[in-house]
Design goal:
Rossmann fold; 6-stranded mixed β-barrel; 36 strands; globular; Ubiquitin-like (UB roll); 7-stranded mixed beta sheet; alpha/beta; 945 residues
Length: 945
């Protein structure tokens, strides 16, 4: 289902429940009260000329093109700022209005070049609106105010041409109202006014602009225009699809010229993004055509040999032969697979089916193991289901946001913009994070409380907050009695009320100021609708599952479930982390989070698949690597994941991979894991496939193929090819058939189909007979498990200790311009913002260690060491350092340890004891690794037959 055009109604829709009927040009029109005359006319099919108005922004009323006549009213009001009224009579066209509009339009044309290329290509509204106003000649000469200003070409994705700018303020308003960065302003007055990015010395690149594209999309003239449009020309077709980056799941209109993508434009009807975007989804899609992308299958006998290109048939036959040989030699349990959170639901479903039906074991896992597996365990234990509780729209009714262990402006920027909108409307913010993230203090947004805890003490902080709630009588006892297990609550309440859990008693552990913690707890409990948003700073700990449970405990105790504006909401990192878990990618669960040991459940799948299933849970990723080092695990099929760069203790991962006899990597590029691979199966991008993703709010959204796969196959077809080489005889012809199977076997997806997704646009699971159009808010009348379950969460310090040799704590995270291990974004112009991983260090620590801004530092732990440049900042506390993991040259995970969550084996990335010291450059390990990478990526000149 594609969309070629999306009308602009001039002003946003009214949400009023009461309707008003008026007359516009003799036509009776009924619209909700509060609708503007402009929008009412547009909905009736009557176009009123406009330049400053667009339905993504609030009415502004500056361009004066949209003047109308209202019977009984004086003057000619602007239709974009005039609300409708019952029995109002409006005229949008008359001699008087045409004369006024022509006069206004003449002035605009004096400030706009007659030879505007964007106008000629149909990407500029000025000449079109001049024509709509009936303007044929211009009496005035061209103005000189903007014609001589230099074009700003600093941004790698778009240019700003002041000569085409009519100072309508749409870009400035978009930066304010939609993005919330306030990077743009109008400088000067009258004809001398102009759009400015930051200070007079700034350009778009050096300013606070985050390159979200809102200004480009809002610009009516082509003054702000994508370079891709300039280079390729205007698109000739478009199709709506879902972004392949983070867990927000933004909907975009992919605008094409044949098989060439010209631009990605955020879709206004996208229910996750509401017409907004970030720099990654909007602009960073060039990796799809990058020269380093591998398009032909390759094999080699040893990782010391160069790759040899082969046909797909030979690749499948060789892979199947190796897998069969290894199982015959080492046993049924000696092989396994890893699914991808970057691939579609249909593709991940097939990989876990391949392992269970083809490999005949349950050795399947997903990258969610190393990010959000504690979310699954913690929320299922307390609430009964492994997912977030609200939709993103819910934030509009939130009064108090608690953001813990997440950095939304970097990791989930489009949702962060919505959070900032709500905060500017008066909602309060609590941030619990070792770093001062942007939300703590940003333009027009400031947290009411920032609790800069010591890394690894989340459970202690949350228990101290619960202590305040219980001991000060702030719990919602009526909610707890009605909705939760009362006996479990009483046990939990007695536990948290103990004096040893007070903020004062735990302050030496958490390093959080007790009065600040008490104030934050009171605000959360009494401030109205309170919502928790959390990320990997909660889950990637030895007590990750305990922290998720503690969050659920706190929300249940205060009654913050079952309505908009509340809940416990994990901010998923990758585009399909939620979906890959939903599809049964964990070794102990089939789709829908149902345990493999259930005989009735296995019987359902066995009848559908025609094969027996092993009732024993398989190996998790860490167990696979351990077993490989021990000699028991010999082959791995990795779909779309780079475990060597993303998983902890890089040296151990490398040792595990090196010990295997057959590593099959299915991906876009020769990534770090492929250094140890024997078979490479080229993958397809999200632009080249059909399927579905599930975002962080459980929203199932269509992914639509906008171009043919450059490698020849969609990823599901690659997995099917391997399955059939193993003799499984799969006959899928389209991903819709796979979704039908998912729906047939998975209760939460029972009502989902491609046809319904085309009809509704998206669906939030559960979708079944009880909720045929999905479930935006979970646990409305009761929890999925029945009664909410409180669980005692004793704080247990991590085994990773600081000491004289490793005195500092390292915590890791992401940055706005890069994505995960950077395989995609590093192959785009996004590197201009983040060309390398940097080590953030507090000024005091930098001085103590003899380090200055830009110096090389060696970062060493008990697991390994690496070097990177430092940046000195008070965003981190003394004793804490921080870095990202986007660049393989750094391999930040060479220093992280194998300590992990007690319940799920999720690695403890966020707490690593380290030593920081001055350095002259790369470590010996980095140099050896670079040499290995260079050798491993050689491709033989011998062509495939």
């Amino acid at each position: 289902m594609g969309y070629e055009f999306q009308p602009d109604f001039g002003t946003p829709a009214s949400r009023a429940d009461v309707d008003v009927t008026l007359s516009i040009d003799g036509r009776s029109v009924t619209v909700p009260a509060g609708t503007t005359v402009m929008r009412a006319a547009a909905e009736a099919g009557l176009a009123i000329p406009k330049l400053c108005a667009t339905d993504t922004l609030k009415p502004f009323g500056s361009c004066r093109l949209c003047l109308v006549e209202v019977e009984g009213a004086r003057g000619t009001p602007a239709s974009c700022t005039t609300p409708v009224a019952e029995a109002m009579v409006v005229r949008t066209d008359s001699d008087r209005l045409r004369r006024l509009r022509r006069g206004v339009m003449e002035l605009y044309l004096t400030d706009h070049p007659a030879d505007c290329s964007a106008c000629a290509e149909g990407d500029c509204e000025v000449l079109a609106q001049a024509d709509a106003a009936g303007l044929r000649t211009v009496r005035y000469g061209p103005g000189a105010d903007h014609q001589c200003e230099a074009m700003d070409v600093s941004n790698p994705y778009f240019d700003f041409d002041p000569a085409k700018c009519i100072v309508c303020s749409r870009c400035v308003r978009a930066c304010d109202e939609i993005q919330g960065t306030f990077a743009l302003t109008i400088d000067g007055r009258g004809f001398g006014s102009k759009v400015a990015a930051g200070l007079p010395s700034d350009d778009f690149l050096s300013s606070e602009c985050v390159s979200c594209g809102a200004c480009v999309q809002a610009c009516p003239t082509g003054a702000l225009q994508e370079r891709s449009v300039k280079e390729l020309g205007m698109p000739d077709r478009a199709i709506v699809t879902t972004c392949g980056y983070c867990g927000v799941g933004c909907t975009f209109r992919a605008e094409m010229q044949g098989e060439q993508l010209v631009r990605m434009v955020p879709w206004k009807d996208g229910k996750a993004n509401r017409g907004h975007s970030c720099v990654k989804g909007r602009f960073a899609w060039g990796y799809a055509n990058h020269k380093e992308r591998i398009l032909n299958p390759m094999i080699r006998a040893s990782i010391d040999e160069p790759w040899r290109e082969v046909s797909w048939g030979e690749a499948f036959a060789h892979a199947a032969s190796e897998l069969k040989r290894i199982q015959a030699t080492y046993g049924r349990l000696s092989i396994g697979g890893i699914t991808s959170s970057r691939c579609t639901n249909e593709e991940t479903f097939l990989v876990q089916k391949l392992v269970r039906a083809g490999f005949q074991n349950n050795n399947v896992d997903t990258c969610a193991r190393v990010c959000h597996s504690p979310t699954g365990y913690g929320l299922k234990t307390t609430l009964g289901t492994s997912a977030g509780t609200q939709d993103f729209d819910s934030v509009e009714q939130c009064d108090v946001m608690m953001v813990i262990g997440a950095n939304p402006t970097d990791g989930h920027p489009v949702f962060a913009s919505r959070m900032k909108q709500r905060l500017r409307q008066g909602a309060k913010l609590i941030v619990i994070d070792p770093r001062r993230i942007d939300l703590v203090r940003a333009p027009h947004v400031e947290a009411a409380h920032h609790l800069p805890l010591r890394p690894g003490t989340n459970v202690a902080v949350l228990t101290a907050m619960a202590h305040v709630v219980i001991t000060e009588g702030l719990a919602d006892e009526a909610f707890v009695r009605a909705r939760c297990d009362w006996d479990a609550y009483c046990d939990w309440a007695a536990f948290v009320a103990d004096a040893r859990h007070s903020p004062e008693a735990l302050a030496p552990v958490t390093l959080v100021d007790p009065p600040a913690l008490r104030a934050a707890a009171r605000l959360y409990a009494t401030g109205g609708n309170a919502a928790i948003y959390y990320g990997l700073g909660v889950t990637e700990h030895s007590q990750g599952s305990s922290a998720v449970i503690a969050l659920a405990n706190l929300a249940m105790a205060t009654g913050n479930f079952g309505r908009p504006g509340v809940g416990v909401n994990p901010l998923r990192g990758q585009n399909n982390v939620q979906g890959s878990c939903d599809m049964g990618s964990f070794p102990h669960e089939l789709s829908g989070y149902r345990h493999i040991a259930d005989p009735a459940l296995r019987a359902l799948f066995e009848a559908d698949w025609g094969v027996p299933l092993d009732p024993e849970p398989g190996l998790r990723i860490p167990n696979m690597l351990d077993a490989a080092v021990d000699g028991a695990f010999k082959a791995l099929y990795v779909q779309g994941e780079d475990i060597l760069q993303s998983d902890p203790n890089t040296k151990h991962v490398a040792a595990g991979l090196a010990a295997m006899e057959c590593v099959i990597v299915h991906d876009l590029f020769l990534n770090e894991t492929a250094n140890y691979a024997h078979i490479f199966l080229p993958g397809s991008t999200f632009l080249e496939k059909d399927g579905t993703f599930v975002n962080a709010e459980r929203r199932i959204q269509p992914v639509r193929k906008v171009m043919a796969p450059l490698n020849g196959f969609e990823d599901w077809q690659v997995t099917q090819g391997l399955a059939n080489a193993l003799g499984l005889g799969w006959t899928y012809t389209h991903p819709s058939e796979i979704m039908d199977e998912i729906a047939r076997l998975t209760p939460t997806f029972a009502g989902v189909s491609f046809a319904k997704l085309d009809e509704l646009g998206s669906i939030q699971w559960p979708c079944n007979d009880a909720a045929p159009e999905g479930t935006p808010v979970m646990h409305v009348d009761s929890f999925v498990r029945g009664k909410g379950r409180f669980v005692v969460t004793e704080y247990i310090p991590t085994d990773e200790k600081t000491g004289p040799r490793y005195p500092m704590l390292l915590t890791t995270g992401r940055i706005l311009s890069q994505y995960n291990v950077g395989a995609q974004t590093r192959r785009t112009a996004n590197t201009v913002w983040h060309p390398e991983d940097l080590l953030e260090i507090h000024p005091h620590d930098a001085e103590q260690h003899g380090l200055k801004e830009g110096d090389w530092a060696k970062l060493a732990s008990r697991s390994g060491e690496t070097t990177l440049r430092v940046t000195v900042t008070d965003r981190v506390a003394p004793g804490v350092v921080y870095t990202t993991f986007h660049h393989p040259a750094t391999q930040a995970n060479v220093v992280t340890t194998e300590y992990s969550d007690w319940a799920t084996s999720c690695p403890e990335y966020k707490v690593t004891a380290v030593q920081v010291s001055p350095s002259n450059g790369p470590t010996e390990w980095q140099e050896d690794y670079e040499a290995l990478t260079e050798r491993s990526r050689r491709i033989s000149a011998e062509a495939a037959e």
